[in-house]
Design brief:
With 307 residues, this protein is mainly alpha-helical. It has helices at residues 6-17, 30-43, 47-61, 69-81, 85-98, 103-115, 122-125, 132-144, 148-160, 166-170, 174-178, 180-187, 197-207, 218-221, 235-246, 252-272, 277-293. The chain folds into three domains: 1-119, Serine Threonine Protein Phosphatase 5, Tetratricopeptide repeat (Alpha Horseshoe), CATH 1.25.40; 130-194; 208-306, no CATH class.
Length: 307
């Protein structure tokens, strides 16, 4: 099947998040996840298991029910991972035919069409979305082929249809494809994103962390020191930030007070929040370990007496 690409990981993630919906098994239930696990294990098992998995999904996809669009989508993913791009495109189209407004299915169809070199067929398949997906695929292909003029023409059409944003043109592969000067020129004709997707991505990434419910991890996600994050909201994180600020300037009183408040918040959480008690306990233990061993606190080991 070849090595697993970044896109493969991306679609496996979404595959695991979805249910293949067999009979009364509903998406999101334990039964659905167990069934998905079996499908994935079978797919990476013997050739006989692989064929069995594909056969089950094909039968379900061939049914007329709209709910079976997910089976078509899952099948398309597995075929894509086998480098069977033509078949993957065929079943991704079937998923879209059953549920033409699902953006996940539309995106899978675009990826499989590009891999199968069948982008020309997307214009009709994408009719429900004014074939913007097809246009984006053509743009990607023109840039891969280093056909600058055709790439610019495609972007011009997307600009006229108000289908792309300033950020799309200025970031990613577009400037390298058509040149920075041309990208800047075209970007002046379209509005910026209403949503700050960089912030959205960081917030989503942060929300997936185990300690998100009690700790602000935005500084970590942005790869910057906690002392420089001015948007912290959770008290326990703010108290630790204040401690980190007090130590470098040698403020004994401020460091003691910050740690005292930190520990008070951690222990209050252990008492009041039974669901997250283990997180508060871990936070307190981690703080003690850092003060005990981290060079940052080398001259402030006396803080250990606060525990």
């Amino acid at each position: 099947m070849g090595s697993i690409s970044v896109f493969s990981v991306y679609i496996i993630f979404f595959l695991i998040q979805c249910s293949t919906y067999v009979g009364s098994v509903k998406p999101g239930t334990l039964e659905a996840f167990q069934m998905n696990e079996k499908i994935l294990l079978d797919f990476y098992g013997s050739e006989k298991q692989v064929e069995n998995t594909l056969g089950i999904l094909k039968k379900r996809c061939d049914r007329s029910e709209i709910g079976e669009a997910l089976s078509c989508y899952n099948l398309s993913i597995l075929l894509y991972l086998r480098d069977d791009f033509d078949e993957s495109f065929y079943y991704s189209k079937k998923a879209v035919e059953k549920d033409p407004n699902d953006t996940l299915y539309l995106d899978m169809m675009r990826h499989s069409a590009e891999a199968a070199n069948r982008i020309s067929e997307l214009n009709a398949a994408y009719s429900v979305t004014n074939d913007i997906g097809a246009s984006l695929s053509w743009l990607s292909l023109h840039c891969k082929r280093k056909d600058k003029e055709k790439a610019i023409a495609e972007i011009e059409q997307l600009v006229l249809r108000n289908a792309i944003s300033k950020e799309f043109i200025l970031n990613g592969f577009v400037p390298d494809c058509i040149g920075k000067e041309k990208a800047v020129s075209l970007s002046e004709r379209v509005p910026g994103n209403k949503t700050n997707y960089s912030k959205y991505y960081l917030d989503e990434k942060n929300s997936m962390g185990e300690f998100h419910s009690i700790w602000d991890g935005s500084y970590f996600m942005q790869n910057k020191p906690i002392e420089k994050d001015g948007a912290l909201k959770k008290k326990i994180t703010i108290y630790w930030q204040n401690l980190r600020k007090a130590v470098p300037i040698g403020s004994v009183e401020a460091s003691k007070e910050s740690l005292r408040l930190f520990l008070k918040e951690a222990r209050a959480g252990q008492e009041a929040d039974k669901r997250n008690k283990h997180l508060f306990v871990s936070m307190e233990r981690a703080a003690k370990l850092l003060i005990e061993q981290d060079k940052f606190f080398q001259k402030f080991r006396f803080l250990l007496q606060e525990f």
